Task: inverse folding
């Protein structure tokens, strides 16, 4: 059905998403934004998995299952992370990572 | 065969006393701890006399010879199958004789110290150290093997160090104790080397095996030669070096006069009667080896002894500190003993020198301990060590006066006091061996009489000095030992040593050789006469003589500048050219390297510690940058 879209398109999209995520992860100071960047990285990986599965081994399902698995883990991780962020906010009234430095010592 | 198992308690008892007094002494009344020490010593004295009696009169003799008995022996350190260090008790004529001498003198000194040290700070510490010393000295003489002897040899060294430095608040006492320890320790290095060479060649430490004249040890060791002497000769010379240090022979004598900083009873016990004769005892113990395998080393013993006795006698004539005069006199008398050892032969009448040496050792222990204890009583009364502060004391100190006179007559060799007999035997032995050494000893005999009576007349006669407080006789605890030791000095000469203590254990006949004895008595009397003329009344003669022989006098007064020579060698040469460069190397190169490493680490870590910020994003940034760089390198540049 989508035989017209070449593999490179998927890869370029995934790469762009990955580096946007990395950039966001490194530069943002807001915990929520960092979490969102992390999701972008994970999803770019998902796209890679699906694209390669589709183009290289169309009769197998490992890639699909792997991306499903990643989605599940990402959902769980997001739940835990948001719980932590809420707690941090209650404790410090901020979610800026540079201000949350009391655990350093 | 009677059992001597109980003799193990003779050295163990003072050790237990040392533990008790050392650990619990400060909780006891000082008087009680002194009494405990003295009572313990009394028991040891009784045991020693009993041992001597059973050994000499009831033990079994084989072929008329006293046997060496190993009363106890345990393996203390089992290093390998063949190499083991034992501890035990060996009884033979000389060790039994030393037991009697040591316990007697030590007991007298203990009683005396009860009075002399009364009210001193550290009274119980003093008695604890005395017990330690007695333990080590008894262990030394009873040693079954040369390594045990070496261990106890060091132990007497440390007790001597502790006792010389008893008044540790006086800098001079501290210096003296360090000097004594370092000088003797240096000499003991030679002793250790000697032991190692000896036991390497003979494969044994045990005295009975080593000194058996027919045993394998003596025959085996004498073959290998090095620099003209056999290996056995070298090892014996090294062993003798230890004896030279401990017995304050030239050139290691410099510690003995300074050791007089210790309390006077200590000087009497350690630095006159017992510890300093350990060197003589050592030579006596190894005598068969010296005689059969190392005659050259025996000559060294004789010449060192003769030179030391003359050298010390000359110095003694000029000193004014009474304890120092006695110290040099001790050195001179030990020189006599060494000489007698050195000229001795083996077996029967040939072994006269050996017997004479041991004889003189025991009589000397009596009269020299007596002299020191008298000196203690005098110092106690006058509060000064210098004979210039004394004079006319005979009216104030009658008991001390009489006992001191007896001791002086004894050391001068006037018959029938004990010193006459022992000195005569030594002179007779020297005459048969070496005429030159014999004449040296005649001269020393005269000098001995002279300087002892110089001391005597200066203290008890002469012009009466004005005293701040009238001197008074010492208490009974001090005078009773004086009287007992004086009795010992008078009668010890009648002990038939030629029947008891001989080279091979067999008795031999020896008679006083009047041809030797009469001139020596006359020389002694001449010495006394000259001293009488010069010092009985205050005269001009001593000063005039000193002025005439200005340089000789000055050299002798300054002890021939031996101390200065040592100082020059150590400070100017060893310290400057060896110790200081080594210290510089250690401080700057060795320490410097370490410091540089430490400095570098500190500096670098100070600078890079900012990297560990705890900011996860920074870590991630570094990680990502690194990953990208690696990727670039691996993909585009790596081919």
Result:
């Amino acid at each position: 059905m989508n035989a017209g879209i070449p593999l490179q398109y998927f890869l370029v999209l995934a790469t762009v998403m990955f580096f946007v995520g990395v950039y966001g992860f490194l530069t943002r100071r807001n915990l929520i934004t960092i979490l969102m960047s992390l999701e972008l990285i994970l999803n770019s990986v998902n796209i890679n998995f699906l694209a390669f599965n589709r183009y290289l081994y169309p009769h197998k399902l490992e890639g699909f299952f792997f991306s499903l698995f990643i989605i599940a883990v990402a959902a769980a991780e997001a739940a835990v992370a948001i719980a932590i962020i809420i707690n941090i906010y209650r404790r410090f009234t901020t979610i800026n990572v540079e201000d949350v430095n009391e655990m350093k010592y | 065969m009677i059992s001597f198992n109980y003799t193990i308690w003779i050295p163990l008892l003072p050790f237990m006393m040392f533990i008790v007094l050392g650990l619990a002494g400060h909780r006891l009344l000082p008087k009680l701890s002194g009494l405990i020490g003295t009572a313990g010593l009394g028991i040891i004295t009784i045991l020693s006399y009993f041992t001597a009696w059973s050994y000499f009169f009831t033990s079994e003799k084989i072929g008329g010879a006293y046997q060496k008995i190993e009363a106890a022996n345990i393996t203390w350190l089992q290093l390998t199958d063949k190499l083991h260090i034992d501890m035990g008790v060996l009884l033979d004529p000389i060790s039994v004789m030393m037991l009697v001498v040591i316990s007697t003198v030590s007991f007298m000194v203990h009683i005396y110290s009860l009075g002399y040290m009364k009210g001193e700070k550290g009274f119980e510490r003093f008695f604890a150290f005395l017990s330690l010393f007695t333990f080590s000295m008894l262990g030394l003489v009873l040693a079954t093997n040369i390594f045990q002897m070496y261990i106890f040899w060091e132990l007497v060294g440390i007790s001597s160090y502790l006792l010389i430095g008893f008044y540790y608040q006086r800098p001079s006492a501290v210096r003296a104790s360090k000097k004594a320890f370092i000088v003797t320790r240096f000499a003991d290095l030679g002793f250790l080397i000697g032991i190692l060479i000896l036991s390497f060649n003979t494969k044994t430490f045990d005295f009975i095996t080593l000194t058996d004249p027919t045993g394998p040890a003596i025959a085996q060791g004498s073959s290998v030669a090095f620099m003209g002497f056999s290996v056995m000769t070298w090892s014996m010379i090294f062993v003798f070096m230890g004896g030279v240090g401990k017995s304050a022979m030239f050139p290691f004598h410099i510690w003995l006069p300074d050791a007089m900083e210790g309390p006077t009873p200590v000087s009497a016990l350690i630095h006159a009667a017992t510890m300093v004769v350990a060197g003589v005892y050592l030579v006596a113990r190894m005598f068969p080896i010296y005689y059969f395998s190392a005659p050259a080393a025996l000559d060294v013993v004789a010449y060192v002894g003769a030179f030391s006795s003359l050298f010390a006698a000359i110095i003694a004539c000029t000193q004014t500190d009474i304890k120092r005069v006695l110290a040099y006199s001790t050195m001179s008398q030990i020189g006599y003993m060494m000489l007698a050892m050195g000229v001795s032969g083996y077996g029967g009448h040939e072994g006269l020198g050996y017997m004479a040496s041991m004889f003189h050792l025991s009589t000397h222990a009596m009269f020299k301990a007596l002299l020191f204890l008298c000196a203690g009583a005098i110092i106690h009364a006058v509060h000064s060590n210098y004979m210039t502060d004394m004079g006319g004391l005979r009216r104030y100190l009658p008991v001390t006066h009489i006992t001191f006179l007896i001791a002086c007559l004894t050391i001068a060799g006037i018959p029938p006091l004990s010193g006459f007999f022992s000195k005569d035997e030594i002179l007779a032995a020297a005459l048969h061996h070496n005429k030159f050494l014999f004449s040296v000893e005649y001269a020393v005999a005269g000098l001995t009489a002279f300087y002892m009576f110089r001391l005597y007349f200066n203290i008890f006669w002469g012009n009466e000095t004005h005293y701040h407080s009238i001197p008074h006789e010492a208490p009974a605890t001090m005078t009773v030992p004086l009287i007992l030791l004086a009795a010992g000095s008078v009668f010890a000469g009648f002990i038939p040593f030629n029947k008891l203590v001989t080279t091979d254990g067999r008795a031999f006949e020896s008679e006083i050789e009047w041809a030797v004895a009469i001139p020596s008595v006359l020389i002694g009397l001449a010495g006394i006469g000259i001293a009488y003329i010069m010092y009985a009344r205050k005269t001009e003669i001593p000063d005039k003589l000193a002025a005439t022989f200005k340089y000789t006098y000055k050299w002798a007064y300054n002890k021939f500048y031996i101390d200065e020579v040592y100082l020059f060698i150590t400070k100017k040469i060893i310290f400057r050219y060896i110790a200081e460069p080594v210290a510089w190397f250690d401080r700057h190169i060795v320490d410097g390297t370490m410091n540089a490493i430490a400095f570098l680490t500190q500096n670098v870590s100070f600078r890079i510690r900012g990297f560990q910020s705890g900011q996860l994003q920074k870590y991630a940034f570094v990680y990502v940058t690194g990953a990208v760089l690696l990727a670039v390198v691996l993909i585009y540049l790596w081919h």
Q: What stands out?
A: Chain A touches chain B through nine residues (CB under 8 Å). Chain A has three helices and no strands.
